[in-house]
Amino acid sequence: SVLLLLAGAQALVPSHRLAARDLARLRAVLERPFSDVRAAYYSIVGLSSLGVRVADEKAACKFIKSHVDSSSVESLFYAAQSIQVLSGCEVTISNETRELLLAAVSEDSSVTQIFHAVGALSGFGLPLASQEALSALTARLSKEESVLATIQALETASYLSQQADLSSIVEEIEDLVARLDDLGGVYLQFEEGIETTALFVAAAYKLSDHVGTEPAIKEDQVIQLMNAIFSKKNFETLSEAFSVARAAGSLSQNRFHLPVIVVPDGPAAVSHQQPVLRLQVTNVMSQLLTQVSVKLDQAKSVSSKATVLQQLPFVLSGDFFELNFMNVKPASGYYDFSISVDGDKRFIANKVELKVKVSTEVGITNVDLSTVDKDQSIAPKTTRVAYPAKAKGSFTADSHQNFALSFQLIDVNSGAELIPHQTFVRLHNQKTGQEVVFVAEPDSKNVYKFELDTSERKTEFDSASGTYTLYLIIGDATLQNPILWNVADVVITFPEEDAPSTVQSKNLFVPKPEIQHLFREPEKRPPTVVSNTFTALVLSPLLLLLILWIKIGANISNFSFAPSTIVFHMGHAAMLGLMYVYWTQLNMFQTLKYLAILGGITFLAGNRMLAQKAVKR
Amino acid sequence: GRLKALDAFLLYVLLTGALQFGYCLGVGTFPFNSFLSGFISAVGSFILGVCLRIQINPQNKGEFQGISPERAFADFLFANTILHLVVINFVG
């Protein structure tokens, strides 16, 4: 049983299958009226994979015969394959057509063409040289490496005689499996998409069945492929629907791998009223499998990890496999069921883990309400209440007395003590609408206790004195009868000085006080007087300079009125003026432009002037 | 004569720069870019003036063979133009 546990822990469980609804959708797409021979092929062969016959086979046969294009190998393939499925549909093939098909089976045709030609010849029942076809196929396959071409090669080989050595093609299955993308350990699919993945599954099993060799696909990989293919619930094109139908057909009927799916009837839960766990076993197409044996390997409690049941078979009753779990009187809670399905060596995913919930009803007993004197000078007054009655009179809790509550919770059916998840004591102020909720905790003997001390709890109550209604709330996922019980009224009095003048209901949805934005404070500047004084001060050295120059005797007398001199001085002055204008108005680009002009003039004039000066010297 | 005039100019520039610096110490650095601009103008002008003085000083004639006083003055004007272009850009 240890080995069984390991196997159960490692095996993947299918997460997707073709449920009845999905099948209906698939059929709806495939049962649309035919638009051309290819659509007819998809519908007829797709439906037959699901085990469904076309509604009007005679009309379908007529359609194909009238719409087939005898000059196209592809059209002939669709016609041939469809005719094989339809009963009582015969067609005569002319010599020309036969020659066309045989000629297409050569190294010069693409893999798709070879596939269609071989499929057509096989479908029409015409003789075919398998060995030559195989060599053409192998030669062509080494040149075309696409996934779709390889898949078509697999299916082509399934039409060839078993006497030819098809092992090289069979090996391609393993290579293709290596090219699948693993998505999160749950899905396995080609990057080309689900349609390609589904076609691969169909072709791989068709070929494997034909040659009698188990395909090189591991059990976990089959389940991952299943998950990917059947995760598609909407079929946009007929070819998509066709591929999924063929994959479903392959996985429900082949010689090697049959995935099984275990479906509980409704939620996997049992109780005193419903003691029987019912399961259905189906294949991927939701077809019931009843020739199987379903066994409970073991049932373990999730909380205590104790094994409650071992090696018990389920009993087949109609469509369901049943087991009465309540016979062993399990405690309420969750249980891990390890179930195995046997009956066919081909079964995979036949060991499943199921979480089963056992529910029960809770009863409250020994409910005692008491007022306990803080000084312990007076004996506590205890009143017993029985659910669902309300205690008569009210209890008080104030600075001298505490209020106390104690009770026990038991399983009504077994009498065992219960510790549910939710055991709350809710106090509701009748006047203000305030409510305060506490958790009642069990002690070591599983007796629940709650005590209200006004001095300790005044913050929760906002010191609001008044009459409070006390409710007991008991709940849990495994309880069928959650309890909301108005037990008693409690008058709570808080010390006067702490009581708020008005009790505001803590309304979270009123506008909060507005926040004023603080703009950036401007820098502290000196008063205007100071800066003006400084400006005057800073200009004073200029005065000094002029005075000094006069004293030194800068000779303005030497000023010659030559044109270049005048131009120079004007230009220079203009440049200085430009600086001022730049400061006030212009940007760098404009300034540079004007500066270039003025500077040029000034330079030329200045050059002449200085040259003249130099000459004079 | 010329040197004395230049010296007077240099004194003027020095005083202007010192006054700006003192104001900044007293009142604060706001706006800092204006202070820098003015101060750099003073310092830069002083340096260029000193360069001009060295170049036109007859005592240094031996070291500046290829540069006539007129050329030195022209250089002085050109450098000042560029300096004050940047200064005006920065003063804000």
TrEMBL record, chain A:
Keywords: Endoplasmic reticulum, Membrane, Signal, Transferase, Transmembrane, Transmembrane helix
Domain Ribophorin II second residues, every copy: 260-358
Residues in Ribophorin II C-terminal domain copies: 519-617
GO molecular function: transferase activity
Location(s), subcellular: Endoplasmic reticulum membrane
Organism: Daphoenositta chrysoptera (varied sittella)
Domain annotation Ribophorin II N-terminal: ranges: 19-252
Transmembrane segments: 529-549, 561-582, 594-611
Membrane topology: Multi-pass membrane protein
Name this protein carries in UniProt: Dolichyl-diphosphooligosaccharide--protein glycosyltransferase subunit 2
Pathway where this protein functions: Protein modification; protein glycosylation
Annotated InterPro entries: Ribophorin_II_2nd, Ribophorin_II_3rd, Ribophorin_II_C, Ribophorin_II_N, Swp1
Signal sequence residues: none
Domain Ribophorin II third: 366-492
GO cellular component, one term: oligosaccharyltransferase complex
Primary residence: endoplasmic reticulum
Task performed by this protein: Subunit of the oligosaccharyl transferase (OST) complex that catalyzes the initial transfer of a defined glycan (Glc(3)Man(9)GlcNAc(2) in eukaryotes) from the lipid carrier dolichol-pyrophosphate to an asparagine residue within an Asn-X-Ser/Thr consensus motif in nascent polypeptide chains, the first step in protein N-glycosylation. N-glycosylation occurs cotranslationally and the complex associates with the Sec61 complex at the channel-forming translocon complex that mediates protein translocation across the endoplasmic reticulum (ER). All subunits are required for a maximal enzyme activity.
TrEMBL record, chain B:
Assembly notes: Component of the oligosaccharyltransferase (OST) complex.
Lipid bilayer topology: Multi-pass membrane protein
Pathway: Protein modification; protein glycosylation
A Gene Ontology term for the protein's cellular component: oligosaccharyltransferase complex
The family this protein is said to belong to: Belongs to the DAD/OST2 family.
Pfam family, one: DAD
Membrane spanning residue stretches: 34-52, 72-91
Organism of origin: Daphoenositta chrysoptera
Gene Ontology MF term list: transferase activity
Compartment(s): Endoplasmic reticulum membrane
Function: Subunit of the oligosaccharyl transferase (OST) complex that catalyzes the initial transfer of a defined glycan (Glc(3)Man(9)GlcNAc(2) in eukaryotes) from the lipid carrier dolichol-pyrophosphate to an asparagine residue within an Asn-X-Ser/Thr consensus motif in nascent polypeptide chains, the first step in protein N-glycosylation. N-glycosylation occurs cotranslationally and the complex associates with the Sec61 complex at the channel-forming translocon complex that mediates protein translocation across the endoplasmic reticulum (ER). All subunits are required for a maximal enzyme activity.
Protein name: Dolichyl-diphosphooligosaccharide--protein glycosyltransferase subunit DAD1
InterPro entries (UniProt xref): DAD/Ost2
Chief location bin: endoplasmic reticulum
Keywords: Endoplasmic reticulum, Membrane, Transferase, Transmembrane, Transmembrane helix
A Gene Ontology biological process term: protein N-linked glycosylation
